[in-house]
Amino acid sequence: MTASNAPIIQVRDLTVGYDHHVILQNVAFEVRAGEVFCILGGSGCGKSTLLKHMIGLHQPMTGSILVDGTDIVTATGEERRALLGRIGVAYQNGALFGSMTLIENICLVLEEFTSLPRGAMETIARMKMKVVGLQEAGHRMPSELSGGMRKRAAIARAMALDPKIVFLDEPSAGLDPITAAQLDDLIVELSRTLKITFVIVTHELPSIFTVADRVIMLDKERKTIIAAGRPQDLRDRSDDPWVRQFFNRQSSGEAV
Amino acid sequence: MARSDTASLDWEPLDGGGVRLTLKGTLNADSVEGLWPQVMRNLAERKPSVIEIDAKGVESLDAAGMALLFELRAAQEDGKGGFRIRGLRDDLGEMMKLFDPGRPSAPARGPGLLIRSVNGLGQAAHEFVMGFHSQVGFLGEIFVRLLGVLIRPSRLRWADTFLIAEKAGANAVGIVALMGFLIGLILAFQSAIAMRKFGAEIYVADLVAISLFRELGPLITAFILASRSGSAFAAELGTMKVNEEVDALVTMGVDPVRFLALPRMVAAVGVMPLLTLFNMLFGLIGCGLVMRSFGYPVTTYVEEIQQAASLGDLFGGLVKTVVFGALIAGIGCLRGLQTGNSPSAVGDSATRAVVSGIVAIVLADGVFAVVYYYLGI
Ligand SMILES: Nc1ncnc2c1ncn2[C@@H]1O[C@H](COP(=O)(O)OP(=O)(O)OP(=O)(O)O)[C@@H](O)[C@H]1O
Ligand SMILES: [Mg+2]
To answer: Residue A43: nearest ligand to its CA?
Structure first.
């Protein structure tokens, strides 16, 4: 829905892989400030890998990644830390700390980056839990939650620092359709009211049509981006018949 | 985005015991950090019947700013006071609604210290008894499976068993031998000091050989196996439990006891006597070194050992090691399979496997002492 915003993430000429084994090559794209940007592709095509490079967990083989003005590839420790204070990440399997309650999980991030009084941190933690609909579960341990609750708690933790950019790895995988739809609404609402930029890895086509402003599609065989643009455009007039069919089949089964 | 510290506040009494709090500027983590204690202190002193927040001048609001407002509201509700926000920009108001956490739900308060400690004691005792109960039950269960394997050896996963035996046995030879050597050396040296007074140094060989064969060899080796492999078994099986791999086995119709515990049991029982032999051998070498330094030739030393220790001593010790091996593996696997649902539970299981393993070894050793006494071994 936003079109003219400045890019907040710029990926140029990126090649990534593990131990000389290339997973993706010649990847280039931009994410604009305030938009919801989705990364699609089949299982094992390198979506999580790309995401981990975008947040600086891995060093790419070549290329540069500019996130909110910081080149994450060459950033010094301090620049990197400053950037980490402005982004939030929810990993594919939650990655909550098992020995702490959910509130403590969120407070841990706040302690690291702010020096607010403890009461303030706990109120903030409860606010974030409320946003994802877990206000009752703040004092529970991650092991006492269902899979879907863990996903939502991970999103709450990703938003702990009022980030400008939130990265989500398959947020709705494993959720029932109703909860998944609520999560989509939540993402849309957050991006609208808080102007958060979302970068989301996902499989779920219905949710792409709800949330995504723009998408890129990765392919395991060709090891690069095979389609980029607004999901509706890709469905209706992509050059690649396979891409068109991919979007159509899924959405025709879903819509009407 | 640089966070600037540009918020201001102003208290102004209203008629009828209320106050108006005028907030201006950017309410973010940096500015709220300073405001928070000040506001809370002020509130506690004034105890206003009503707080009216004038938020016309608020330019932006982040989570910390919202938290301040929510906290004020909660404090007022606790003191049965009123709370109003005036003039907040619409988009900020909408955001506040989205984040409104409601009343804090207090974590369930536990009972007092005394009751808790009495409670804890009872629970610990109960756990100990039930733990013993489940250990015996589990060992029995494995034993039944073991008999099944004796009838049909192909039902055991031999490849796994050998791999585990290599890890628990072959890789432990170094440490077991070193411990044996040092214990033999130290024991011989310490007892020689006393024996010397009576000119009876030659009997050091008797003492070391008999105590190594009957007690020290099996015990030390069992302690090493419990801390190396008992904990490893518990951690491996515990991690599988946390990853729902054990559940997967059950739903695939594979018996986790046969699949996971039995190979470990067979491996541990198999390697224990061999490791103990290494331990004893190196213990005797350590002792021999001391004897040699007292001027006894090697042949005298060997003859003395042959005279002092019988085959009964040696085999009595080795029989124990089989039981110790079974206890270590059985308890390690049981603790692993009992693991809860979090990574820290894996650590707890490993700890408990070592502790209950060592306790079980010592208890079993006591039983053996009594039995051997009556059997005259
Ligand atoms: N740490 C690693 N070391 C080596 N190879 C890896 C590593 N992590 C992932 N890979 C490989 O990289 C490829 C891409 O993995 P990735 O996790 O990025 O896939 P994905 O697109 O996120 O898949 P999914 O949708 O299943 O999560 C896979 O072939 C995988 O085997
Ligand atoms: Mg992935």
So the answer is: 1
Report which DSSP code applies to A144: G
Compute chain B's Rg from CA coordinates: 35
CB atoms within 10 A of CB A104: 17
pLDDT band of B108, cuts 50, 70, 90: low
Residue B30 belongs to domain spanning: 7-99
Q: What is the pLDDT of residues B201-253, one digit of tens each?
A: 889 999 999 999 999 999 999 999 999 999 999 999 999 988 878 887 887 77
Which of A21, A47, A52, A217 has the most ligand 1 atoms within 8 A of CB, as the residue to mutate?
A47
- A48 is in which domain, residue-wise? 1-86+168-256
**Of B67, B99, B131, which closes a domain?**
B99
Whether the complex's predicted ipTM is more than 0.90 is answered with no
Measured CA angle at A178 (ends A172, A180), to 5 deg: 15
Q: How far is the CA of A46 from the centre of ligand 1 (A)?
A: 5
Asked if the C-beta of B33 comes within 8 angstroms of chain A's C-beta atoms, the answer is yes
Which of B66, B91, B342 shows the shortest C-beta gap to A141?
Answer: B342
Q: What angle do CA B285, B289, B295 make, to 5 degrees?
A: 135
Residue B208's pLDDT is what? Answer: 93
The residue among A107, A134, A162 that closes a domain is: A162
Report how many domains make up chain B: 2
Search chain B and give the residue with CA nearest A85: B1
Q: Please give the tally of structural domains in chain A.
A: 2
A92 Cα to the center of ligand 2, angstroms: 6
Distance CA A156, CA A168 (A): 11
What one-letter code names the amino acid at B21? L
- The amino acid at A253: G
> Per the CB < 8 Å rule, is A189 touching B107?
no
Closest CA to A55 of A90, A4, A24: A90
